[in-house]
Amino acid sequence: MKRLLAFLALCTAASACVQAADPITLGLSYPRTGSYKEEGLAQMRGALLAIDEINAQGGVLGRSLRLSSLDDASKPDKAVRNVDKLAKEGAAMLFGGASSAVAIAAGKRAAQLDLLYFGTLTYSNDTTGKDGHRHMFRECNNAWMSAQVLGQYLNKQLPGKRYFYVTADYTWGHTTESSLRQTTNTQDAAQHAGLKVPFPGASLADYHNALTQAAASNADVLALVLFGEDLVRAMRIAKDLSLTSRMQIVAPNLTQSIVEQAGPGLMEGVVGTEPWTWRVPALENSEAGKAFVKTYSERYAMYPSSSAASAYSIVQQWADAAKRANSLDSEALIKALEGHSYTLLKDRQQWRSFDHQNLQTVYAVKVKPRAEVLKDPLKQDYFEIVERLDGSTALPDLATWQAERRNAGQPLALQ
């Protein structure tokens, strides 16, 4: 009998050890298909690199990490279903998305399941504004931060010019156009006209119609508030209509993937913003950032984009918070993240306590001439950084944030 009890105790202990060693699942819902699929692929690469590095250092709380991923195709309803599937699989946290509508919808569902959701590419002000909640953290900048640094640059280089806006008809497009109009003093729609195009699913005819009207206007600046493949399609039509030589093209949120898809020849001279480029670590003297660029480049034979950097940073920051909290509990992690200041791939960043927006430096960038790009060994030296803005000076304060929440009928503190 004693031998049997000892054997059963040994089996129980062995089972407990196996359970303790079970990997922690991180759930990535990202666009593997659709207009933003290249940004999604970069997120996958950045996340896998971070997980491999963390596992090589012993994992989190004595357990390794594993990634489970699902395609959201940049569709909010599909992203919500992904949240349910990943939660059922036992994911400890969720992240991803390249559409603000997706991030907002998925984040709300994650909150209902008491799971943290980290927005990877979600630039709409609404994500951490009127639609913000305790379980949502945004790693990238918001539309207002982009508009501040872009407006600062454009107002110096192109003062008093007439604008024409072509905007994706959803939350990111709306808040990005509104923010840029404010910072460039182009709120008068009679003088600075604009058109909305459907998202998702805009046709070539939609872009051709909008850009034909832009061509017929007296505008000096064409603001293409579009992203991913949508921006690439619009740029090709703009080229056919000779708009790329007649007007200064502004694309508020650029990525390395967008320039790769379109080609630097087509994108030459386009002005936009980035929260990070592979040149930033050298600019900000970030040793960890330089190491990330080196490791990523060796592994994937390409430079990391801001999309990859965001996913990498999210995994690293979540793991760091879990270690500091000594817990995977969402409430414990929220407390560990709120107000936390750190340096990773650039200069100092911070998770702002009252809205969970990441405070960070934002950069205005201009696409280099093709001949200059081709001098680089990987032919991916796309961006000249033309303006830099400290993120802490570019965000609305608590009173402004609360006023926006009040107008939307939302609580004045995250729930």
From TrEMBL:
<feature type="domain" description="Leucine-binding protein">
    <location>
        <begin position="23"/>
        <end position="368"/>
    </location>
</feature>
<keyword id="KW-0732">Signal</keyword>
<dbReference type="Pfam" id="PF13458">
    <property type="entry name" value="Peripla_BP_6"/>
</dbReference>
<keyword id="KW-0813">Transport</keyword>
<dbReference type="InterPro" id="IPR028081">
    <property type="entry name" value="Leu-bd"/>
</dbReference>
<feature type="signal peptide">
    <location>
        <begin position="1"/>
        <end position="20"/>
    </location>
</feature>
<keyword id="KW-0029">Amino-acid transport</keyword>
<dbReference type="GO" id="GO:0006865">
    <property type="term" value="P:amino acid transport"/>
</dbReference>
<dbReference type="InterPro" id="IPR028082">
    <property type="entry name" value="Peripla_BP_I"/>
</dbReference>
<dbReference type="InterPro" id="IPR000709">
    <property type="entry name" value="Leu_Ile_Val-bd"/>
</dbReference>
<protein>
    <submittedName>
        <fullName>Extracellular ligand-binding receptor</fullName>
    </submittedName>
</protein>
<keyword id="KW-0675">Receptor</keyword>
<dbReference type="InterPro" id="IPR051010">
    <property type="entry name" value="BCAA_transport"/>
</dbReference>
<comment type="similarity">
    <text>Belongs to the leucine-binding protein family.</text>
</comment>
